[in-house]
Write a structure and sequence with these properties.
Blueprint lengths: L40 E2 L24 E10 L11 E6 L5 E6 L3 E6 H4 L9 E4 H4 L2 E4 L4 E6 L7 E6 L4 E5 L4 E6 L7 E6 L5 E6 L3 E6 L9 E4 L4 E6 L6 E6 L3 E6 L9 E4 L5 E7 L4 E6 L3 E6 L4 E6 L11 E4 L4 E4 L5 E6 L5 E6 L14 E8 L4 E8 L4 E8 L6
Parallel strand pairs: 2-6
Antiparallel strand pairs: 1-27, 2-30, 3-4, 4-5, 5-7, 8-9, 9-10, 10-11, 12-13, 13-14, 14-15, 16-17, 17-18, 18-19, 20-21, 21-22, 22-23, 24-25, 25-26, 26-27, 28-29, 29-30
Length: 410
């Protein structure tokens, strides 16, 4: 059943409607992970003979792709479980660069060894697998998951999961056990969880319309501070460069930036421009900028200190679901899902996409499979090298490796 995120948060004993359909919708379709027939891949390549040469001094005129993305691994639900919902709602690369974690409707945190997902030298030859074969560790959870975040400073050992029951749980990955639970949101769905750069503070955003901060070092401590919005809080993120700033996106159509040192004083920036719910807000390193994402079908770049919109990004489809949005700051790229069942990459300099990949495998009978791309995450590796992981509402995980193209097209 499809409905919008509720803008009200004073009924604390029942779940309000989800964001225009569950952020992770159920799809009851048969699935076979081989063979796959991809719809298409598109990019305006700057080194292509058919590409329009850039006009000197007019870099803003035409977007061009200066990156090469190649499929490295595709992991699908096993055929035996294809009828069960396995939608992916969160993807997180381990900061220690060993693991990739996913979570979603299936009530599982799946871990994949990164060296099995990425090519080990040379050109990638796509690997096809299913979750049972590719997953190196699985933690079963009591509720559906909406968000995951690795705890900084834990050496890739502690991961936080936000769930539909309103609980944030920290899991010890090595022991596969829960080590702490926080339920300050009184049973209202928690959409997002994050940690400060040093891991000392945690934050969560919920259907109850609050951003809550806590001291992650205090096992018995309750909530340290609370900020309120006029609708469900869909996204929270700390400044990854260690500043005191916390960004939040709300169903009230606004993005906010708070000072964690004075959270209850209200936002230091209120960013209005989206026509519908703001589902993600991500910081852009190197300045006071953020990118927001909304169910009006746009991402928007802001100078939050001045409260000024710098650019809007359109091309993907988003009117009803959490589709995933991530920023690779050092490369100046935005990764995005889409309800058109495609994964998009935008360059911060241009409002149109620079790379689009059809995510829709076809069934054996040749018919298109319905669904949408529901989660994305960047692996921010060395300069000019990285990876983009994208998950679908059908449970398919795809990992693409990306490399910067030099002037010779190499």
């Amino acid at each position: 059943m499809e409905s919008e995120i509720s803008h009200h948060h004073h009924h604390r004993h029942h779940h309000p409607p989800l964001l225009i359909g569950q952020p992770l919708r159920l799809f009851h379709q048969s699935f076979h992970h081989s063979p796959f027939l991809y719809d298409y891949e598109w990019a305006p390549m700057s080194n292509s003979p058919s590409a329009t040469p850039p006009i000197p001094g007019h870099d803003e005129d035409k977007p061009r792709c200066q990156w090469c993305f190649r499929l490295s691994t595709l992991v699908s639900p096993a055929a035996a479980t294809a009828e069960a919902s396995d939608a992916i709602g969160a993807i997180e690369f381990d900061p220690s660069d060993r693991l990739l974690a996913t979570g979603g409707i299936a009530r599982k945190i799946r871990m994949y060894a990164l060296d099995t997902l990425l090519p080990q030298g040379g050109e990638p030859s796509p690997t096809l697998s299913d979750h049972s074969a590719a997953c190196c560790l699985c933690i079963c959870t009591p509720a559906k998951l909406s968000s995951l975040r690795w705890r900084p400073g834990s050496g890739g050992r502690i991961i936080a999961a936000a769930d539909y029951d309103g609980v944030v749980t920290e899991y010890d990955v090595e022991r596969s056990v829960a080590v702490f639970e926080r339920d300050e949101h009184a049973g209202r769905r928690v959409w997002s969880v994050d940690y400060s750069a040093h891991g000392h503070l945690g934050a969560s955003g919920s259907d109850d319309g609050t951003v809550q901060l806590w001291d992650s070092r205090c096992a018995n401590g309750g909530c340290a501070a609370v900020a309120r919005a006029d609708g469900a809080v869909c996204s929270v993120e700390f400044d990854p460069e260690g500043g005191p700033w916390v960004a939040a996106g709300s169903a009230d159509r606004h993005a906010y930036v708070f000072d964690a040192r004075a959270l209850t004083a209200g936002p230091v920036a209120t960013l209005g421009g989206h026509g519908r719910a703001v589902t993600y807000v991500r910081f852009v390193p190197g300045g006071r900028r953020v990118v927001s994402s909304g169910t009006d079908g746009s991402h928007r770049l802001w100078d939050w200190e001045e409260g000024r919109q710098l650019r809007a990004y359109r091309g993907h489809a988003n009117a009803r679901s959490f589709i995933g949005m991530a920023v690779w700051g050092s490369a100046g790229l935005i990764g995005s899902g889409s309800e058109s069942n495609e994964v998009f990459v935008y360059d911060l300099r241009w409002g149109e996409p620079i790379w689009v990949r059809g995510f829709g495998a076809r069934r054996d009978d040749g018919r298109s499979r319905d669904g949408f791309v529901s989660a994305v995450s960047w692996r921010q590796a060395a300069h000019g090298e990285g990876a983009l992981a994208a998950g679908g509402s059908d449970g398919v995980l795809q990992v693409f490796v990306g490399s910067k193209i030099d002037d010779d097209g190499v």
